[in-house]
Amino acid sequence: MAPSLEAPDDEVRDVLANPLKKKPDLVAPEPEHCPGPESEQAGTADSCAGCPNQQICASAPKGPDPDLPLITARLADVKHKILVLSGKGGVGKSTLTVQLAHAFATNPDTTVGVMDTDICGPSIPKMLGVETETIHTSNAGWEPVWAMDNLAVMSIQFLLPNRDDAIIWRGPKKNGLIKQFLKDVQWGELDFLLVDTPPGTSDEHLSVNTFLKESKIEGAVVVTTPQEVALLDVRKEIDFCRKAGIRVLGIVENMSLFVCPGCKHESKIFLDHTGGGRGLAEELGIPFLGSVPLDPRIGIACDYGESFFDSFPDSSACKALKGVVKGLVEQIGLDPEVLLPEGDGSS
Ligand code: SF4
């Protein structure tokens, strides 16, 4: 019989449902088939046989991570925590995160934070025009960088001595940094914290979910492009959300059409043979938040760290983005007329 890549159900439940356990001090790196030194099976699983850490893992306390209450306390003044996910890379997830942040920040009474957990490819600081900033620390913790008076951002980019440095970290180190972001960054009072995650269903997703579980995640926005190869991965992402108990607030289809900024002619770059993001949303019973056309001016605005909403408010892409934001706001039970006074939501 061919070996199964699926983890057993109880292992999946342990990883997804339980708070992270405190990791013991290991004497050797975790082997490839490690169930996780923080897991309930640590040291006792069949795959632990012969591992130099076995005794340490087996005898380590199996209590919840003591940092979880600190994270919950730190984020107590953040009203709405929203994950932005994508099944695969290249669908414009970080770009959409930045557009959502700018859209919320158009209301001067709304304060927004963006946490960039794409540790190996942080792009949010560049898109928000704060790429060269560094963070300040005090006894109270790390200060986020303020891209606007009401828009703060935290990213590993700010910790790098050289912006071209590659981050080559294994899972535990990445998880440690995500925990530090959540535990030590002084976000203060925020209306929204948008958490930009790397593509797929990796360690970083598990970490963000388990660390934020106690302080409540509002849900996830899932970004895709119309073609089937992207939708296949989106299905996995949505399955991950369901298993992890994360509400899917809606699907956004990015790059639905290319609208020529010159002649306004519309053409399809990716063909939606199976109904695209809207078809998938209908099939899975998930809200469809809207389709956003590919507009090269969005990329230019991101390259220059400018707000596309301010630069091209009358473009069809801007109107489509406003529609997405309006749908998202409604999904979390808020009034778009109050929150987005200038958003007409038309697309
Ligand atoms: S003993 Fe098991 S859980 Fe601990 S490091 Fe080794 S394989 Fe991983």
UniProtKB/TrEMBL annotation:
Subcellular localization, as worded in the UniProt entry: Cytoplasm; Nucleus
Top-level lineage group: Eukaryota
Record InterPro entries: Mrp-like_CS (IPR000808), Mrp/NBP35_ATP-bd (IPR019591), NUBP1/Nbp35 (IPR028601), P-loop_NTPase (IPR027417), YlxH/NBP35 (IPR033756)
Region Disordered, annotated ranges: 1-47
Compositionally biased residues, Basic and acidic residues: 22-35
This protein's UniProt keywords: 4Fe-4S, ATP-binding, Cytoplasm, Iron, Iron-sulfur, Metal-binding, Nucleotide-binding
Name used for this protein in its record: Cytosolic Fe-S cluster assembling factor NBP35
Organism, scientific name: Podospora anserina (strain S / ATCC MYA-4624 / DSM 980 / FGSC 10383) (Pleurage anserina)
Gene transcribed to yield this protein: NBP35
